[in-house]
User: Fold this.
Amino acid sequence: MKNTYLILLSRGSSSLLFGSLFVLPFSSCSHRADSNLHKKNERVVNVRAFGASPLVGDALLWRGGGDIPNYGIGVEGYKFVTDRLALGAGLTVRNYNDSGSDARAVEIEGRMRYYVAETEKAGLFLDLNGGGMWAQDPIPERGSEWNYTFAFGPGIEVPLSKNKSLLFGAEFHHLSNADGSYSRRNPSQNEILYWVSHSWKW
Assistant:
């Protein structure tokens, strides 16, 4: 754990900390019901693209031995259970730039999004996701085709029109087959995932 903060600040992962600083200016805005970007029972669909940079070594509570860069696209659906809290699910297709040949993977997640601050022009939110992933080949190398996944991080929504928005953010993403953090069969992988998405709501 002693190297945790150094690892988090390396390899561009400081974007997670930088993103959280947006809470301060947003939180200083007075909250009005008519300034909410979303309403209870509203439904949203997002299409997003991302790239991920691995973190090797200790990061937060998990040790990661994987070092495979990856990118992909995904589709997410949400329903707002309050004006600020949305629950949903996501389907992601990933391409891992493995040595020798690329490996494709499919990830299914349960997703939660909470808007911590909003104005009429933008909203700051936090994502919390978890699920499972299946790949053509073991991810990382010496790992397994099946892995559990967990991710969290901040994002910003900028409305483009009444029903469309542009969103972008970053998240810490962890995958593991739950065989033990120091198992040879479970090198696991930690990464910072940078993403941008387009959303439609109704």
